[in-house]
Every structure is written in C-alpha cells, then in structure tokens.
Amino acid sequence: MGNPKGFIEIEKKVGGYRPVSERIGDFGEVEQTLNEQDRIDQASRCMDCGVPFCHWACPVGSNIPEWQDAVYRGKWDEAYQILTRTNSFPEFTGRVCPAPCEKSCVLAIHDESVTIRENECAVVEHAFDLNVVHPYPPEKRSGKKVAVIGSGPAGLSVADLLNKAGHSVTVFEQDNEIGGLLRYGIPDFKLNKGVIDRRVDLFVKEGIQFKTSTQVGKEITATELVEGFDAVCLACGAMKPRDLQQTPGRELKGIYFAMDYLKQQNKVVKGEAIEDAIRIDARNKKVLVIGGGDTGSDCVGTAIRQKAAAVTQIEILDKPAEKRSEDNPWPYWPNTLRTSSSHLEGCERRWSLNTKRFIGEKGVLKAVEVVKVEWTNQNGQFSMKEIPGTEEIIEADLVMLSLGFLSPIHEGLLDDLKVEYDPRGNVKAQDFATSVAKVFVAGDATRGASLVVHAIRSGRDAAGKINAFLNK
Hints:
The protein folds into three domains: about 5-130, Alpha-helical ferredoxin (Fumarate Reductase Iron-sulfur Protein, Chain B, domain 2, Orthogonal Bundle), CATH 1.10.1060; about 145-240 and about 405-470, FAD/NAD(P)-binding domain (3-Layer(bba) Sandwich), CATH 3.50.50; about 245-405, FAD/NAD(P)-binding domain, CATH 3.50.50. The longest helix is centred in the last third of the chain and has 19 residues, at about 450-470. Helix 7 packs across helix 9 (about 115-130), helix 10 packs parallel to helix 18 and helix 14 packs across helix 15 (about 295-305). The protein has helices spanning about 5-10, 20-25, 35-45, 55, 65-70, 75-85, 90-95, 100-105, 115-130, 155-165, 180-185, 195-205, 220-230, 260-270, 295-305, 415, 445, 450-470; strands spanning about 145-150, 170, 210, 230-235, 240, 255, 285-290, 310-315, 350, 355-360, 365-380, 380-385, 390-395, 400, 405, 440. It has a five-stranded parallel beta sheet, with helices on both faces. A five-stranded parallel beta sheet has the order 6-14-7-8-9. Strands 10, 11, 12 and 13 form a four-stranded antiparallel beta sheet that branches. The chain is built from 18 helices and 16 strands. The mean pLDDT is about 95. The chain is an alpha/beta fold.
C-alpha cells in the first residue's frame, strides 16, 4: 500500500455523468472520466485491508488491492496485467458491472468506498493508450477443435482461455456481429461498441475464428457440430423472456419485449436500416416500462433519447429502502434503491403495482390498468395480494416488457442435442458438463439470467473443465 493514509487524506471523487441536457441528445457514453492524477489519488484510498472483502465479493476474484497499488504508483501496465489474470474483459466490467466489490469495500461502511469500477475502466484505457495491449497467439496448437455457441461474455471468456491453451476455437454467433447481449442488449450510452470491436480484433489476431450470421441447429446441425469438434460449449444465454400472456389485451399493437426494443435501437445506432413497419420508436409517445431492473432502466434511457413524450417505469415489488436494513449488513450486497443515469434524465418511477389489463382501440394500445399490491412475509415465504379499490389507468402508447428471462431457448439446437434441463428449464450441468458427451455449458444458459461479471467467471471456469477434458 503506497499511501497508508490515503483513505483519510483523499476524499472520494467520481467521474460523474455528462450533463443531462447534453447526453440525452445522443447515444454516446454518459460517464465522464477523471484526469490521471485524480485517478491515482482515488487508487491511493485503497486501504489494503487485512481481509480484502472487495476480492471476496468480486465474482471473478479480482486482486483489487494489488492493482490499486499499481495504479497509485503509476504502473498502468502492471495494473492491467494483474486485472487480466482473473478477468478477460475488464473494459466491460469497468463500464457495466454493478460493482459488488465496492459494496463490500471496508470504506463502504461509511458510504465512502474506493471507486473500484471507475479505476478498473481507467486501467484498461490507459493500457490501450500506452500500447501495452498486444495479441499473444499460442506458441503451438494442440490439434483439438472446440466450438463455442454464442459470443456473449461467457462464450468469449471460454474462447479466450481455450485459445490461449492452444486449442483451435470457433465461435458461432447467430447475429451479424460478435458480442451477444454486450452488443445488442446494452445501450451504447453505457457501452460503446467500439470497445467490443477492439477486443474482438485482438482475438482474431490470436487465432480465434468467428462465424457470424450462423444459426447453429439449422445451417449446422447438432449432429454435425458434435461430430466435427472435439468439444462443444453452449454459451447461448437465457433468452426466453418472461411474458404477460394471460393479461387481457396482450395482443394489442404497441407492446414489445425490452430486449427486442434495445437490440433494434443498437442496430440503428450502428447505422443499420430498419423498416418503418417494424421500427419501435418512442418519439412523442407515452412510454410505460414494466419491470424495475437494469434492462428496464436501459429502456427508459433509450426512450428518452428517442424523444418520448413521457416515460414511466413500474415495478411489482415494494420500493427498496434507501439504506441497509439490520438484516442486510455490510459486506453483503445491499438490497437498497438503485438509481441509474437513465432515471436521472426524466422518468417517473412507481412500485407495488401489478398489471391488470392492456386497453386499446382498434387493436392499438392506449392505456394500461394497474392495481396496487402488498407483500407479506411468513416464515420466509413472500406472498402478494391486490388492494381492492386501488385500480388506476395509466395512459400508454408504448409498453416495454422488462420482466426478466425464464431460460435458454429449448427449440432448435438444445432440443436437437437432447441435453437435460433442470427444474427451471436451464441446461443441467455437472462441473459445466451437460448430459451429452463432450458438450459443455457456461453462463446464463445453465445459471439463469445474471450479471455480465458472473458470465465471465462462468466462462473462465468452464474453459478450465473443457481444457482438462481435452487433455485427458
């Protein structure tokens, strides 16, 4: 620890966001950056605790005190090397991770945690600026071939480590660009897609093959896949969305899944043309986002940038507390209210509301009826009941369903492979091995929808098991 009194002498300082009036006019990244000296000062606040709870809380096990010290000493290349020992993509987590490490930082006891996530992002950008990031193809190849299905964070992590181990890796992606939900599910104002392209370019130079616009299960059958490769890793995500199928009026025009909306807008930002007949545009419309999570927040920010007339986000659960409760102590993840940059741009947020029915005219959505609910907890079992007489109508021309995901899509490749599923519909696995010989699984496809950082860890762990299998 370079400065043992840094956390006392230096106040916490964050980069903050670009002004609202500026950022809602484009899809550029909203976060600002600190200058180099400020960033070094922030790194000096790391206490190098006897028990680094930040390391304990980080899903990829980042050696946070070590690389913070390297930043304090101005050793950006060393910090980058330490970061990438446990994380293939610190440039992604440095932008979109909710930073469980910061919530478990000892200084978080007083709401003054080290700015770990921002420091992480700064390390990667300095490393690229200083030209210390280079492709390192393996010196020799094993002769074994691996197919990775899906190019999200889990698939790319698997591909990265197996390629480094000398195996020949081919990544199959059904969309026309690499990145999975990193590219299509996260708006550009949170993650500039050039950041993905930069990393993929390195992977190409290291020898990973990418096949885009390829529907595995159609263009390549399950049988061809298993017979043509020594190992297969399913990293296809959990893309079956939760729906409101039983809600009256669900068939009305103007109701969309959040991911369809975000994916389309990301394509528009990239310059792709979208037919007017299928374009989802919030301009001058009253938008209702159903679901209070991160994806719903991304829909809020996107609708605001499309110049919606008004944006409301509702959640069926109760409003979280502003501060930790006694039964939710540090260093565990705080079940508290989270406010994103999108919420700060002009959005009404409401809680404890259940959707009763969609109301329309001539097949077109006009409003949504909701009702207040209350939750009770009996012996750890939560139950919900509607409060009579609290029904109300919310005017809406456009509804985004952001209700989470149920499981990976079974139809097609997974059913063709005849993999077993767990009770939740995810791919059943033992040490990342599925029920089918030489077929493995990683990320949301087996864990269920989760964070980017969990997908990265899952991919890295799966790569270790696959490597051991190939080296038998």
